[in-house]
Design a protein that fits this description.
Rossmann fold, 9 helices, about 425 residues, alpha/beta, 2 domains
Amino acid sequence: MLLFFISMSISKAQTNYTESEVPFFEVPNPLTTFKGETISTNTAWEKSRRPELHAFFRENVYGRVPENLKIDSYNILEQDHNALNGKAKRTQVELTFTKNNKELSFTILLYLPKHVKNTAVFLGYNFYGNHTITEDESVIISTAWTDNNKEFGIENNTLTAASRGKRTNRWAIDKIIDAGYGLATIYYGEVDPDKNDFSDGIHHLLYGENQNQPKPDEWGSIAAWAWGLSKAMDYFETNPEIEATKVIAFGHSRLGKAALWAGANDQRFAGVISNNSGCGGAAMSKRKYGETLAVINQRFPHWFCTNFKQYNNNEEALVVDQHQLLALIAPRPLYVASAEEDRWADPRGEFLSAKYASSVYELYGKKGIGDMEMPSTNLPIHNTVAYHIRTGKHDVTDYDWEQYIKWANIHLR
């Protein structure tokens, strides 16, 4: 076990934002199996350690997908080869899934640069509909359930044109296209609405007889969103304009958790970006800093599988921690990003996860995070395991995208 020396534990009822009050804990070693065997080669990692870690996260944290559900059909809803002032091609494609006389569809909004063939793509979910990431009036407005938001003009859980372009600040589309990358996004509520109700998302298509919610080891919403990213990959493999071997899973906050789990499950993703993913994402659970397992499972009981709740106020019982989730992405490039004012997401815990996952990358001759000390603000590390902490709050900014593009140019081109 790797030792993390800190002084004292905290009250279960309080949110800890003091580093000296992080409890002492042992960091589970990614290179030691549950039986105590040492892993010293990437072959041994892939044969024994990686499978047991993946199985633990699947059965006790995110939940397993009951069966493989393939795309029933995909339909091009709209297409324009002269989008974004003439420099991009826009496609809106609907993927449909059917099972047990039930149906679910979600729409991918895809922008590809006109000057690039076989384009590498950033793929990520958005929070309030595809039409919110751009002022482009041709982008279709989703009819799926949406959380109300007065600032965005969303009432009665329904999206309207009032919210068009409200999240352009989070999607540096011009920078992405100008750099020669494509951007694909999906409204996450079309895959599974973000509420504690498993009757109106993808889950209910796969229920058995008399079942109305997932079993204790079956998928919560994060695993469902991760599943949706993999289904988008299935479509990309049919699209000759996309270089499907160079698709990067991106996500912010809860959707950063989904991107990490998608990357761990589906090795077709060429890289993964976790932006401020925090508890249940990149941040180490055993630190109990900022958001904790008890808090996240109480506020969002649908995100993880039911089995995960046994670790509420009981993080010390976990035989894994989130750095081992990050290690499951090895040897593919991984970027973990934090924000200085986002203490809820525990920036240091996110950094340490990247650091402790690096030992697995080293088995492949890849460079990870070598220092225990966090880098200075706005001074990124662009190794295969990359990290930055920027000024500002819980958000996605142009600075973040500038770093992701630079890093992708180094490791994915």
